[in-house]
């Protein structure tokens, strides 16, 4: 089924992994899914990160777009169509040619990857995977959940990666963890989904969240009532890490899958702080 994009302000800015090149013109970025459709945002060297409806011109039909995933450069596709709003005065997404998926995003129902306008080389940085049963990453998640009032001794790790995001020669650790097993009628327990970064600053290890939902479900509370209060269960996964800005640091592209919709986040990390620069949603 073809995605229906809910807003022109949608940017499923994604999961790109650009080589470190000077940015002189707006670079369009997006998320491509298995049905070959794309929603667009951009990084402008003057305006910074911008939503698609602030960029008047779209890439031309036939223009090249480079696809990136966790494995790096997956190939080049081309624009086959431009999708506009009902008033036809603005565009918000592109149709693209077929592409070949790389390393799968854990537990996602559909292949997803990042796209950046132009034909770009392979990235300098590709993340390495950490085993899901690694004791250190489990301890990081347990400690974070404790700050949210949840005691979870053995958190369920879904994705753990190492990558040098800011180019200082030291790798950061990125972790996605979740457990929704308590979301059943008649059950009690912690229900959580988190995406975290673990890094060292001035010799001290620190943990910051990109996204986090952590609650305790009571046995007397139905699944429907719990999700009405706290929203749908969202699975967070990291997609790719481009230097979109051309500043020698990777942007972090994160997807949040809630079965009927997918949220997209773009973050930057300066060695000490995490900043969300773009966000969007798409309904499937």
What are the main properties of this structure?
45% strand, 7% helix, mainly beta, six-stranded antiparallel barrel, 284 residues, 2 domains, disordered N terminus
Give your account of this protein's structure.
The chain is mainly beta. It has 2 domains: 4-126 and 237-283, no CATH class; 128-230. Helices cover 7% and strands 45% of the residues. It has 2 helices and 17 strands. Strands 2-3-7-6-5-8 form a 6-stranded antiparallel beta barrel. A hairpin with a 3-residue loop joins strand 2 and strand 3 (37-44). The longest helix has 13 residues, at 135-147. The protein is globular and about 55 Å long. Residues 1-21 have low confidence and may be disordered.
């Amino acid at each position: 089924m073809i995605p229906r994009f809910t807003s022109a302000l949608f940017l499923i800015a994604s999961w790109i992994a650009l080589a470190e090149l000077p940015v002189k013109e707006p670079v369009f970025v997006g998320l491509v899914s298995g049905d070959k459709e794309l929603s667009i945002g951009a990084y402008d060297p003057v305006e910074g990160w911008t939503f698609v409806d602030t960029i008047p011109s779209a890439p031309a039909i036939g223009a090249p777009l480079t696809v990136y995933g966790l494995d790096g450069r997956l190939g080049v596709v081309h624009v086959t169509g431009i999708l506009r709003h009902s008033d036809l005065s603005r565009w918000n997404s592109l149709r693209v040619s077929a592409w070949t998926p790389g390393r799968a995003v854990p537990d996602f129902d559909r292949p997803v990857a990042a796209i950046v306008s132009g034909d770009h080389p392979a990235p300098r940085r590709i993340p390495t995977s950490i085993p899901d049963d690694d004791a250190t990453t489990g301890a990081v998640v347990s400690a974070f959940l404790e700050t949210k009032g949840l005691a979870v001794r053995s958190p369920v790790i879904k994705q753990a990666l190492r990558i040098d995001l800011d180019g200082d020669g030291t790798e950061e650790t990125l972790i996605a963890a979740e457990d929704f097993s308590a979301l059943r009628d008649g059950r009690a327990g912690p229900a959580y989904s988190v995406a975290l970064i673990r890094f060292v600053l001035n010799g001290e290890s620190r943990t910051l969240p990109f996204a986090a939902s952590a609650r305790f479900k009571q046995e007397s509370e139905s699944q429907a009532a719990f999700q009405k209060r706290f929203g749908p269960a969202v699975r967070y996964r990291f997609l790719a890490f481009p230097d979109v800005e051309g500043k020698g640091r990777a942007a972090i592209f994160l997807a949040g899958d809630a079965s009927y919709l997918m949220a997209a986040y773009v973050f930057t990390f300066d060695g000490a702080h995490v900043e969300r620069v773009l966000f969007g949603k798409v309904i499937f």
